[in-house]
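[job 4471] stage=fold_predict status=RUNNING
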Amino acid sequence: MSTQIINGGGSGRHVIDGPLTLAATDEAVPGFMLNSIDSRIVKVRPMSTPIDQLSRCGDSRRATSMTVEYYSVDPKHTEAKTTAVVSSGAGKRRADGIYTHTIHTTEDLIFEPSETVILPDIAVKDKDGNSAGPLVFYIVGRLEGGGIEVMAINAPKDEDGKALVPEIPKDSTIIRMGRAATELDVQTAQFQSLPTKAYNNCQIFKMQVEEGTFYKIARKEVGWDFSDQEEAAIIDMRMGMEKNFLFGARAKIVDPNKHEEVYLTGGIWNQAPRHTEIDIDDFSESSLIEIARQAFTENCGSKRKIFICGSELISRITKIECKHVRHAADTKVKWGLRFDEIVTNFGNLCVIHSEIFDQCGHSCDGMVIDPEYMTKYVHLPFRTEKIDLRRSGTRNSSAVVITEASCVVLRYPRAHLRVIGSKAPAAN
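[job 4471] inference complete, writing structure tokens
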């Protein structure tokens, strides 16, 4: 296969399918060598790779195989919806002065005997007609035929002392609260948290850098040597890894030419189960507050998270006038990355721009990541291996092969959030 010269998408050109030779260099960059160079050469640094950077600085574990199996668990659900209307009145008599109601919910199994629950949308009043707050129940038990049996706690009582519960419509929210034990209780209903088993594939990322022997000994105007070639290759390799770690599709395929299996890693974008949609054309401080609300509630995550954004979303965040949230006075530097921190009452968002989002068609989108619950599995650690192609009789050049086999997973998926920005269609 002959050596080819391709454009780099900006400044600079790249040599593929062959070593870096004098002829290839002169074709790609006329005048680069000392005898014809004109003025200068510029090394172009690509954009940062925050996911790859975070994964290297955070929790990393050794994988013993290319397929990684891991367990993730989210907190026990705290709320459900009623699936049928609960009639008003005192309910069913269980004993003298004790009346119960049956409530059918979308998730009966999350409720346990001796727990208390609240229905925030159902207001009750005391005997004098004053507000007694939302309706609260004590759970007597789960019923074999479905539903939970409950006793009203703060419902108004009639002359006979019966608690009169107002009608509870279908789809009313019911929220778990704390347990209420008796004096003689030693045990409660058992609680176990069973994690969900998931898996991802480690992908073998490779990059090879070659340098022809005559190119190596030729005198050059600038100090561009083999270590610079390696640095440029590593940057390009990490950029590719970043795209796979974010938006890759998990698969195992067979290369039709090599007849060997290829493992492809799945990106964290599709691992996060939660998302929120925003109108990018009408982005305001309220939109930012809603993102923070979604990011820091209904999960067990940290109160400081990383908000990685495409350029369009970054632009809208930068332009809004903030009254109820504020920007931290200093730019934060952590994990080798610089963040602009936005402080809200829900938690702090450390905002960073990622050009990978732009390149992959997500310029209006972003992702809130909790670095505490993102793990990198490494089957083959990042390493370089020198190959003497001249001695092997392949080519008159030396080469370095850079390799890593790894993947990134989200251990507590609900601690992370996808932010999807939508734009109004352009008028014809």
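[job 4471] summary: Residues 10 and 257 are 32 Å apart (CA to CA).
[job 4471] exit 0
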